[in-house]
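=== RUN LOG ===
request id: a7f3
mode: sequence -> structure
chains: 1
length: 115
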Amino acid sequence: MSSLKSRLLAPDGYVEKHILFGAEVYLRRLTIAELDAYEQTLKKAQDSGSNTQASIAGANLILQTICDKAGQPLPKEELPTAEELIATKSTHTLIEALKFVQQFSCGSLDSAKKN
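=== RESULT ===
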């Protein structure tokens, strides 16, 4: 890959520490492709009438943002599964966390912190 192309395609790598579900975690901003994949998965779940699959898609998106201080994904054994998360959280709590990570990923952190 050319040097210019490499620089243009370098990941953003924006990471911040936040409280999520009562735990202090590092969050990374998701890419446009990751957010788009979530939207497609959510639409399929909604079209099929599956609230469970929509909740799992949201939980997976939240879990995708959790990372180490360097922005790298955590080992799977350190995180719950999406199914475990939706089994322990209320709809309101999950939706608030989902809105927060979406706003954080889109760069509107002030809005994310207010909600």
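=== NOTES ===
Helices lie at 3-8, 32-48, 51-65, 82-88, 91-105, 109-114.
Residues 32-48 form the longest helix (17 residues).
=== END ===
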